[in-house]
Amino acid sequence: MILVFLNHIYGKLLRIAEDFVVVDTGTFGFKIYTGKNLALKLNEKLGNNVLLYVAEVIEKDNVRLFGFLSEEERDLFESLKNITGVGVKIALRIVSTLSPKEFYEVLEKEDLNTLLNIPGIGKKIAQKIFLEIKGVIPKRVYNDEENVIKNALLNLGYDKKDIELVMRDIRKEF
Questions:
Q1: Which end of the chain is less packed: N or C, by CB atoms within 10 Å?
Q2: How far is CA 34 from the centre of its chain?
Q3: What is the pTM of this model?
Q4: What are phi and psi of 84, to 5 degrees?
Q5: Distance (Å) of CA 82 to CA 30, 66, 129
């Protein structure tokens, strides 16, 4: 069983780096990992007090804190990082790219392409996220690549029935 000790940290923002910030609470200085978008948002707060909601990530050989501006962002990060194949890096990229509201709209619309546009997310991981969080795999997305393949096969003389069989096999693989 893993115990969570911290909900948030409030203190003076001392340093902003590409992937972390340092917050001084008066007694301790906490190194808190963030997404790039959060670091940019916090730039104007350097030297001032900030409130960050934190997620603790306990690994074999270290403990890291990840910071977010809202509890909803933190909770989404927690949900995503626990999905097999997603992990901390991809969860942080998703939360840095999409607000929780936008993320849940993507799920509702079964918009696989939005997730696929986030670096590090392939089709299998995107589908796994849909399956784990929403309980469904999104409907197949028609895209330019599929149309190119179909047209190439048509131009080579294959009939539409055979092309659909081949496309079904390709979809199973990817």
A1: N
A2: 13
A3: 0.74
A4: -55, 130
A5: 24, 14, 10
Give the model's pLDDT for residue 45.
94
Token pair in block for residue 157 = 């003389």
Task: Give Cβ neighbours of residue 133 (< 8 Å, ≥ 6 apart).
Answer: 79, 80, 83, 107
Segment 67-81 shows an average pLDDT of 93
Q: What angle do helix axes 87-97 and 71-81 make, rounded to 10 degrees?
A: 140
pLDDT band, very low/low/confident/very high, at 78 (cuts 50, 70, 90): very high
Task: Please tell me the distance from the alpha carbon of residue 70 to that of residue 98, in angstroms, as a whole number.
Answer: 13
- Whether 1 has a pLDDT exceeding 50, the answer reads no
pLDDT at 59 over 90: no
Q: What is the distance between the alpha carbons of residues 174 and 169, in angstroms, rounded to a whole number?
A: 9
User: Chain-centre distance of CA 90, in angstroms?
Assistant: 5
Instruction: Determine the angle formed by the axes of helices 100-109 and 71-81, rounding to 10 degrees.
Output: 50
Rounded CA separation 41/109 (Å): 28
pLDDT digits (tens, 9 = 90+) for 111-148: 888 999 999 898 889 888 888 887 655 554 445 567 67
